[in-house]
Amino acid sequence: MSILVDDRARVRTLTLDRPDALNAFNEELYDATTEALRAAADDPSVAVVLITGNGRAFSAGTDLREMHARTSDPNFQPGKHGFLGLIDALAEFPKPLVCAVNGLGLGIGATILGFADLAFMSTEAKLKCPFTGLGVAPEAASSYLLPALIGRQNAAWMLMSSEWIHADQAKDMGLVFQVCAPDELMDVARRHAETLAAKPISSLMAVKATMTAPLRAEIAAARERENGCFRELMGGPANVEALTAFAEGREPDFTSLPAGA
What keywords are assigned to this protein (predicted)? Predict the structure, then answer.
């Protein structure tokens, strides 16, 4: 299994479990996480979901080797749900969602925080939205959710720079609720999750529904814009250079690409 599931005190903890790959999302993990979220949404014994990672990473984002195969292998077989299915599940998740960022988070390992109702982060963790470094576009409605959550300039830096955001920066931006020592992270995150989980599930869902209702149309529109840009850029000169450089173990060079690429 690529995901571990633990139930305690009406909190379901989902632990991403590909530690050797820094919990990068391959098709299997996208499918497993999507199905775990949907199962938790439908389970009347689950009040809150807590997501974290196993090992030294929260998630290294999309598995770049699979991304390269998707663009270069005509026989590549996508999963049942894939990336878009996971974002559907996050956008539709009706119960409180808590994230405990235990280590590095890239791509969806960072943009998932746009869907979190509470996020906690280890002092040793760091986040990156590597989209411009990969020659692609934002994802997961981050072009809408991040400016709304942390302000336009903070979001512009995260989405445009492909630079690391450290825990104190994330807290100052409002991207996470609390920063914790590594050995305290899960206890703190779980304590908050269990506080919520002791409340009536119907009330928790009502609060979340009323908070997210005004966002739903904007999230859908942002995803449509992002997916259009992503389709246009994926497999283009900048994306090919980025993935080739990754496969060759070197830094990409975008300066020699055709104008506008």
Answer: Isomerase, Peroxisome
Q: Which residues contact 157 (CB under 8 A, 6 or more apart)?
A: 163
Nearest residue to 43 (alpha-carbon basis) of 93, 112, 118 = 93
Query: Distance between CA 34 and CA 43 in Å, rounded?
Result: 14
**All domains in the chain, ordered by first residue:** 3-183 (3.90.226.10)
Exposure string over 214-226, b if 16+ CB within 10 A, otherwise e? ebeeebeebbeeb
Per-10-residue mean pLDDT, the chain, length 261: 94 97 94 97 98 97 71 65 94 98 97 98 98 94 98 98 98 98 98 98 98 97 96 91 88 86 73
Single out the residue of 184, 194, 202 nearest to residue 11, CA to CA.
194
- Nearest alpha carbon to residue 130 among 119, 120, 142, 115: 142
Contact present, 163 and 157 (Cβ < 8 Å): yes
Report the distance separating Cα 207 and Cα 94, nearest Å: 10
Q: What is the CA radius of gyration of the chain?
A: 18
Between the alpha carbon of residue 49 and those of residues 45, 93, 96, 100, 195, the distances in Å are 11, 10, 7, 11, 12
Tell me the residue length of the chain.
Answer: 261
Instruction: Write the DSSP symbol of residue 25.
Output: B
pTM, two decimal places: 0.93
Q: In what order do the strands lie in the sheet with 57-59?
A: 57-59, 104-106, 126-128, 165-166
Report the amino acid identity of residue 66.
E
